[in-house]
From TrEMBL:
Name this protein carries in UniProt: Metallo-dependent phosphatase-like protein
Domain of life (superkingdom): Eukaryota
Transmembrane helix found in the keyword field: no
Gene Ontology BP terms: nucleotide catabolic process
InterPro entries found in the cross-reference section: 5'-Nucleotdase_C_sf, 5_nucleotidase/apyrase, Metallo-depent_PP-like, Nucleosidase_C, Pesterase_C1039, YHR202W_N
Length: 583
């Protein structure tokens, strides 16, 4: 863990079950490779994960079974370790490559900005060579303009100990927001391609499909159906991501799928036991999943080691690389001190502890001002997906600015929009589904990814944060004494409610709207004739369609820059001005 990270915290534990084929899975790490410095249950770092994987590989060797590491993309954007350098990722690519990942693919965040996709192609693809798979992604060479696969389309290999044949694919969901130097082929088209049709007919013991795709999403189900049609009994294992939730399901009795959360909070574990070889008769398989908290105590527990014996030399070196990068990037520089916690989904919106209320009532009114139009009435719309994490009471650092808002979002506007049309926009953006059926603009892409999976608030009857836990059969830390549970994941997936490795008390989840709106400089009485419609540039396509539906025709030529600077910079400036400098 990093030098100033919160000390790890004990929790009652569920053990891992080993099978013949075992996996460790990361997804949507979004640059959090230093771990969560303020949260003890997730404060291990990428160096600790390197140590953990080395110990677990040794255990696999000792048992004569196999362990593979998988990563399903969105490794970038979301934390100062990636975002604070210019160019971005100056330290991250070298840190990330220290983990020996066996199967890796691309997420949408590697593709939003052309320079990010260029760096993915220049660094991560060659860093992982034959392990990087791009089944439905092409890259356009900036010099020649030639389109070619981002990496190989699939991978066939044998496992180390049992020599099991594996055919692996690496997909991205049908993403359409990529920069123009990449091409994402819709999954339904890819599975018709000749290469895929041949690959799924390869003789193999197991198919492994990794993807930056939620395990409940149509794309994975289509791939499953295509492979299963040709291979009635071959095990098919899916590793998904994108939705930022812990989730698992099985599409039939010989398939299994896991998604392993977000932000280095979770290391997923999947194991398969039973007869895996293709030549044997079909016998029942058993699948097991665990969501391992990225908590050093847990990693010690699962590897059977302690703080002395756990860190490997390699792991320590990676931890030191991260610490050096954080120092050089001045990520601990403090803009101000948050007076209390502000939550994305732990409290209702609107409420005094909602980060969206803070934005709507305090930050946007103060920063969304164009000096030349300061008195012009305006509606300022932000998509809730632009905010990526909670604010904790205490130091708000350079790192925090990227954690809260990593995007290069700027404020755009259309001047003098008739108010009757402008006021309808927020309602349309917050309605379910697509605002125009054929525009491929799902409104849910405006909100936080978790809401792709969680459609309704989850409110527990009794908050159990003060519960004392008597562990029963479970592994008890601290010599078996009852302990106070820490708030954290209490996952319920299609397999049951026993997936989390650590037992936590519940956290409420209140769903939030797709967008929020600050109404500024409106007349005290009556309605203005026109307003400036100000919005985060990311949501421009949705805003233009919503205006059209409201009877006001505008095109992208009508959109102008409202104010200099990214939202991230504006927010940091507001904090420096409004929150005390010392904590
Ligand atoms: O410039 C941007 C890019 C993305 N968003 C929001 O993020 C989600 C996607 O996040 P994932 O981590 O890929 O799931 C997208 O739906 C937007 O809500 C943004 O606001 N600005």
């Amino acid at each position: 863990a990093q030098p100033h990270a919160a000390k790890p915290i004990a929790a009652p534990m569920r053990d891992l079950k080993w099978g013949k084929l075992n996996f460790l899975h990361t997804t949507d790490t979004h640059g959090w490779h230093a771990g969560h410095l303020q949260e003890p249950q997730y404060s291990a770092d990428w160096g600790d994960y390197v140590s953990f994987a080395e110990h677990m590989r040794k255990k696999a060797d000792d048992r004569g079974v196999d362990l593979l590491l998988v990563d399903t993309g969105d490794r970038v954007e979301g934390n100062g370790l990636y975002d604070a350098s210019d160019p971005k990722g100056q330290y991250y690519y070298d840190i990330y490559r220290e983990q020996d990942v066996d199967i890796i693919c691309t997420g949408n965040h590697e593709l939003y900005i052309a320079s990010t996709a260029d760096r993915e192609h220049k660094y991560t693809v060659p860093n992982f060579k034959s392990k990087y798979i791009a089944s439905n992604l092409d890259y356009i060479d900036p010099k020649s303009g030639v389109k070619k696969p981002m990496a190989q389309r699939y991978r066939k290999f044998q496992t180390k100990n049992q020599k099991l044949d594996i055919v692996a694919f690496g997909f991205l969901f049908d993403f359409t927001g990529n920069a123009n130097n990449t091409v994402v082929q819709p999954v339904r088209e890819t599975i018709q391609e000749e290469w895929f049709q041949k690959a799924m007919r390869e003789e193999t013991d197991v198919f492994v499909v990794i993807g930056h795709v939620g395990v409940q999403m149509r794309e994975f189900k289509d791939i499953f159906r295509a492979i299963r049609e040709q291979n009635p009994s071959t095990p098919i294992l899916f590793f998904g991501g994108h939705v930022h939730v812990r989730d698992a399901t099985s599409y039939d009795s010989r398939s299994f799928a896991i998604a392993s959360g977000r932000y280095m909070e979770t290391i997923g574990w999947m194991s398969v036991d039973g007869e895996l070889r293709k030549s044997e008769d079909e016998a029942a398989l058993t699948f097991h999943r665990r969501y391992i908290d990225n908590n050093l105590y847990g990693l010690h527990h699962h590897s059977g080691l302690n703080s002395e014996t756990f860190p490997t030399e390699h792991g320590r070196n990676v931890t030191a690389m991260i610490a050096k990068a954080r120092k050089e990037l001045e990520l601990d520089y403090t803009f101000g001190c948050a007076p209390k916690d502000y939550w994305m989904t732990r409290t209702p919106y609107p409420s005094e502890n909602s980060i969206y209320s803070l934005l709507e009532e305090e930050v946007l009114p103060a920063v969304a001002i164009n000096p030349k139009r300061a008195d012009v009435p305006r509606l300022v719309i932000a998509n809730t997906g632009a905010i990526r994490f909670d604010i904790f009471k205490g130091a708000f650092t350079r790192d925090t600015t990227y954690i809260i808002s990593p995007f290069l979002s700027v404020l755009s506007y259309i001047p003098d929009v008739p108010y009757p049309a402008a006021k309808k926009v927020i309602k349309l953006l917050n309605s379910a589904g697509k605002i125009v059926a054929d525009a491929h603009l799902e409104n849910e892409f405006l909100a936080i990814p978790e809401q792709l999976s969680i459609k309704e608030s989850i409110i527990y009857d009794t908050p159990e944060s003060s519960d004392l836990f008597e562990a029963g059969d479970l592994q008890k830390p601290l010599g078996g004494k009852p302990i106070r549970l820490v708030e954290g994941y209490t996952t319920r997936d299609d397999i049951g409610d026993d997936g989390d490795d650590a037992i936590h008390s519940n956290i409420n989840f209140y769903t939030v709207p797709n967008c929020i709106q600050a109404e500024l400089s409106l007349p005290p009485e009556g309605e203005p004739e026109t307003v400036d419609l100000v919005f985060f540039d990311f949501i421009q396509p949705w805003v233009l369609i919503a205006l059209r539906l409201s009877g006001a025709q505008y095109t992208k030529e009508d959109v102008q820059s409202y104010i200099e600077g990214t939202f991230t910079e504006l927010m940091a400036g507001w904090i420096a001005k409004n929150w005390p400098a010392k904590c």
